Amino acid sequence: MTTLFGYFRSSASYRVRIALNLKGVAYDTAPVHLLNQGGEQFLPAFTQLNPHSLVPVLADEGRHLTQSLAMLEYLEERYPMPSLLPGDAGQRAHIRELALAIACEIHPLNNLRVLRYLKHELGVEEEQKNAWIQHWIKLGFAALEQQLAGDTRRGHFCVGDAPTMADCCLVPQMFNARRFEVDMAPYPTLCAIEDACNALPAFQQAHPSQQPDAA
């Protein structure tokens, strides 16, 4: 049985839930609360699964994968259809570059452990912390908006008319942006793609509010 160890509000967990749903893979959820007891991700039972103390972890057939993009690639290879990386080598590289722009350039700078360091170690005030988060999201979103708005490869989704790995990464980051009160008006293309994604059951079922640990 496939098990996803994650946190309902974690962007990385969210993107893997979307991919599992799109692939039609049945899985168990093992909640790891990032705030309880100082963070359950630091407890020995979890660090044995992932020494980095980060969610998610995907357990499948004795394997424990600890990076969300590696999980998406794994699911793509194990369950080729529907494809999250369709097209030729050039198009697949384009999908990956969009996904990585979000997962590597935007998301890490509003990750919980970064925000904790800003607040607890550097003494950054809440208002300054929120300004930090908004700055990096806006910077990344402005570039993505420009890139996607003029790209003929874009359809209803980031690339074409079916969701790909790029959409799996975009929607959770849009959720994060709204959590931190980023004005979304400057990003109409991203919002249109988000709307197309959220019309699909796979995205609806992956939403943080639908997870067993959301309460």
Fold and architecture overview:
Strands 2-1-3-4 form a 4-stranded mixed sheet. Strand 1, helix 1 and strand 2 (27-31) form a beta-alpha-beta unit. It is globular, with a radius of gyration of 17 Å. It is 52% helix and 8% strand. By secondary structure, it is an alpha+beta fold. Helix 1 runs parallel beside helix 3 (68-78).
Quick overview of this protein structure:
The chain is built from nine helices and four strands, in the order E-H-E-H-E-E-H-H-H-H-H-H-H.
What would the keywords be for this entry?
alpha+beta, 215 residues, globular, 4-stranded mixed sheet
H and E string: EHEHEEHHHHHHH
Shape annotation:
globular
Please tell me how large the radius of gyration is.
17 Å
Q: How many beta strands in the DSSP annotation?
A: 4
Uncertain residue segments: none
Beta-strand percentage? 5-15%
pLDDT averaged residue by residue: 96
Q: Strands of the biggest beta sheet: in what spatial order?
A: 2-1-3-4
* Gap between N and C termini: 25 Å
Specify the biggest β-sheet: 4 strands, mixed
Helix content: 40-55%
Determine the number of helices (DSSP H or I, runs of at least 4 residues).
Answer: 9
Structural class: alpha+beta
Secondary structure elements and pairings:
Layout: E1 2-6, H1 11-23, E2 27-31, H2 44-47, E3 57-60, E4 63-65, H3 68-78, H4 89-106, H5 112-121, H6 126-149, H7 165-179, H8 188-198, H9 201-206
Parallel strand pairs: 1-2
Antiparallel strand pairs: 1-3, 3-4
